[in-house]
Amino acid sequence: MTGLQMKTLLVTAASALALAACGSAEVASPGEGNFGNGGNNGGNNGGGNTPAPGTPAADCPTGLANVGTIANGSLRVCQLPQQILGNLSLAVRAGTIYSISGRTEVGTDRGIDPASTTGTQGILTIEPGVKIFASSGGDYLLVNRGSQIYAEGTSTKPIIFTSRQDVEGTATATSQGQWGGIVLAGRAPQANCQLTAPVTCTGQVEGTNAFYGGNTATDNSGRLRYVQIKYSGFEISTGNELQALTLAGVGSGTVLEYIQSYNSSDDGIEIFGGNANLKHIVINGADDDGLDTDTGWRGGAQFGIVTQRAPNSTSRSAGFEFSSAPSSTPYASRYLSQPKIANWTLVGRNAPTDAHTVMHFDTGTNPTLINIVATSTTGSVAGCFDIADADTQTSFDGGTTPSLRSIYMSCSVSYRPANVARSTAVFTNARNTNVTAAGTSTLTAPASGTTIANQNLAFINGANENAVTAIDPKTVYSFFDSVNYIGAVRNAQDTWWQGWTCGLTAGSPC
């Protein structure tokens, strides 16, 4: 993402087919209409018999629309209602696949106050092994404030959100942007309207006109565990995009772990404000940034792998792009982003310009980074590290928590040439240098393969990375686990990323 402010979606005639605003008419897909009670018997067989392998189910569960078949007629397509009120459950069901069409909402916006009686709650529950697809950029899943999603897969049965092309077998290792993505909107604080009251204000989520934000740091939007989000991301307008996963004002009561973004046409995960915490994240093939943070996020993320795709002519991709409040806001009044990041491995691409480095920080963001490995392919001119403005340098130098500890960088250029003095000053600040390091990467790839779709997938520590003394993350942030190594994985035997992800080795294509 290049724009740092939230943008209200202006629906024009040209874009109405892609995305419709709350309360406006939706463009109906076949089978849409009156879905009856979306909360009853969502996971049963609706009275149908179990079909033979390779044949579609005869019907759809109550509350879902039968919109035909897919995959050469082998699967019955059961479409979710565009407004889920009450409880709806999606179960693994022989001969069945689920779909979303257009803006698919869980609940209606219930406002800032958790005690509010406005709006209607929705709860979407998805069982391990369920697959859901969408067909176009305007198809996305939105969980509104006050509603929840419980999508909990397992290491052997992940829940998969993907595109129609993937289901039909026409997606390739370079496909992207084939549907919108997932948006969680919560009631946790954010900086978008900080000039009034930073902890009680409302903003609008990028890529949609849904509202987010409030004064409940522990807000609970549900649980996402062992989830793949593939071939997503959609640009509504310049700088106004849907990512694979958007977290807007999401609170610390939400569980977010074992999540993969694969081949997003924008960011892998973008976080707007809130206090969400994440663990075990894989982002491979994002066309823009891996992890992008904005507008006052004050949570933490531990154990993450980012491997970037080869750039296109317009790519400004970074492994981390961390921003704070909008740059037009006076510095002293900002609700600053204070992300806490531990044990990530960032594998950058061969950047043709210095537009974005592997790690990019701007607009006064004040992060804490520990146990990080950052590298890029030989010949990249962008560098590993970039402090983009004076406000950000001040936030690093004047911070009270460790900003950069146990970081190993290996890039052809260490610092972005345009900001080399500022970036060097921050990286070599006296609070940081005793446990930081830079040198030659000895990262290795998993044994079953090295490269998929121009992505350098070497992310397992070698001797040089292992030689760096790690900081115990738990002493910095209680959400973190204690470890004694830097980077996302301890060694080749540390396989937390296996089984539920795809595309990280030649033996497991997506």
Shape: globular
Intertermini distance: 24 Å
Counted by DSSP, the helix tally is 4
- Contiguous runs where pLDDT drops below 50 for at least 5 residues: 1-48, 194-198
Measured by DSSP, the beta-strand proportion falls in 25-35%
DSSP helix fraction: under 10%
Number of strand segments: 32
Radius of gyration: 22 Å
Largest sheet composition: 16 strands, mixed
Overall mean pLDDT: 82
The helix/strand class is mainly beta
What is the structure about, briefly put?
The protein is mainly β.
Topology:
Elements (H helix, E strand, L loop, with lengths): L64 E6 L4 E5 L3 E2 L1 E5 L5 E4 L3 E4 L15 E5 L4 E4 L5 E4 L4 E5 L6 E5 H5 L12 E5 L17 E2 L6 E2 L9 E9 L3 E4 L2 E3 L2 E4 L6 E8 L6 E4 L4 E8 L6 E4 L5 E8 L12 E3 L17 E9 L10 E3 L6 E9 L8 E3 L2 H8 L6 E7 L9 H8 L9 E2 L12 E2 L2 E2 L6 H4 L44
Parallel strand pairs: 2-5, 3-6, 4-7, 5-8, 6-9, 7-10, 8-11, 9-12, 10-15, 11-15, 12-18, 15-19, 18-20, 19-21, 20-22, 21-23, 22-24, 23-25, 24-26, 25-27, 26-28, 27-29, 29-30
Antiparallel strand pairs: 1-2, 13-14, 16-17, 31-32
Helix pairs in contact: 2-3
Textual characterization of the structure:
The chain has 510 residues and is mainly beta. Helices cover 5% and strands 29% of the residues. It is built from 4 helices and 32 strands. The strands form 5 sheets. The chain has a 16-stranded mixed beta sheet that branches. A 10-stranded parallel beta sheet has the order 3-6-9-12-18-20-22-24-26-28. A hairpin with a 4-residue loop joins strand 1 and strand 2. Helix 2 (390-397) packs parallel to helix 3 (420-427). The radius of gyration is 22 Å and the shape is globular. The model is unreliable at 1-48 and 194-198 (pLDDT under 50).
